[in-house]
Q: What sequence folds into this?
DNA sequence: TGATTTTTACCTAACACTTGGTAGGTATAA
DNA sequence: TTATACCTACCAAGTGTTAGGTAAAAATCA
């Protein structure tokens, strides 16, 4: 549990990137958050691109673990699926932040190649999990589960984006509810 | 049809903002696009915030006209509704750009107040139109049409975001199709 | 064990570049 | 002569990044 400086940098960088994007992440503010000087970050990371790629990698790795845990802890895949939107809700609860992947998808064309790669993997991890769980819960046939999984991932990301721009987490809940009513998510 | 310098600035700024966001919009690159020098932009706009707010205002005004035209040209509101996703597809077709509103929703917390206002109106215009057309096409009851309208707007924005991060317009089409299959959009 | 060297984990100071913005000038047209 | 539609030149602040230093801890050696 003791967090070393490297971990502190990664945690702080993740939060900043979720709030301001890759472009809005700068070494001086980040260093101040951590309690060190900007130049010291280079002791741990050779460049901003490398730091951001590490942040994005850690992000999808954590997400993968969280999703598997959610599934393992649920008695029924349908329950895990129902709770899926909570993972995205959490960012909004914490200072109106966004999913890293959502934010960086917007900035995508300006991202270093190494960062793009990790951001794509985050989407892949989510879609793969959703696809698996949709099949297991028999919401759709295995043949159609991947298409549905992508649709859910995109829609949840859109809901987060819209709710954030209103700084209104109840809007996020309302949108998820509408997805259920409309049939995109199982009721 | 003859575009004056002010209009040229606004058009070029819109394109840049759709591709790189408010943060990625800078006066030197913008001026070069237009064929003038950066300082000359201040002859037309007092600040970057003011320029961006004007861009965003023009953006939702054009969207409002386009949506009303779409509705007027459609023999049936259901047809107008079916073609709604085309308005968002267009940005992706043009150099993988995003809807301004989607991009700036991500950057929202760092936006000048005047820009935030116009970005919100864009969302309002879309939701109001969708709500009206959903009711007219009898897809949902008037009482539920606004909730559904918001859901569709968010989901279409999410689809655009995901397709952009893959630079794959066919993914956008596939996602819209999935929304129809799932029942979020009428088949 | 104590002395020495090396490594760790930072620091200060600066560079080159980009950014939004300003002051003041100038050629053309009304 | 005056307003229009630009321009050059510059400033101050912020950016990623580098060079080179330093105090303390750890490892090595006598």
A:
């Amino acid at each position: 549990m003791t967090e070393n400086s490297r971990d502190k940098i990664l945690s702080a960088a993740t939060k900043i990137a979720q709030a301001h994007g890759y472009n809005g992440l700068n070494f001086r503010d980040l260093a101040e958050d951590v309690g060190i000087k900007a130049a010291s970050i280079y002791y741990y990371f050779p460049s901003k691109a490398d730091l951001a790629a590490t942040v994005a990698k850690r992000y999808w790795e954590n997400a993968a673990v969280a999703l598997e845990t959610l599934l393992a802890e649920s008695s029924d895949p349908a329950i895990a699926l129902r709770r899926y939107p909570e993972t995205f809700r959490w960012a909004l609860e914490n200072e109106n932040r966004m999913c890293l992947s959502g934010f960086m998808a917007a900035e995508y064309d300006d991202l270093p190649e190494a960062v793009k790669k990790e951001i794509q993997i985050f989407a892949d991890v989510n879609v793969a999990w959703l696809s698996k769980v949709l099949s297991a819960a028999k919401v759709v046939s295995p043949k159609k589960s991947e298409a549905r999984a992508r649709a859910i991932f995109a829609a949840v990301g859109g809901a987060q984006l819209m709710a954030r721009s209103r700084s209104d987490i109840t809007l996020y809940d309302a949108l998820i509810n509408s997805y259920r009513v409309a049939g995109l998510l199982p009721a």
In short: Chain A touches chain B through 48 residues (CB under 8 Å). The helical segments of chain A are 5-20, 27-34, 48-73, 77-93, 100-106, 113-136, 142-165, 169-182.
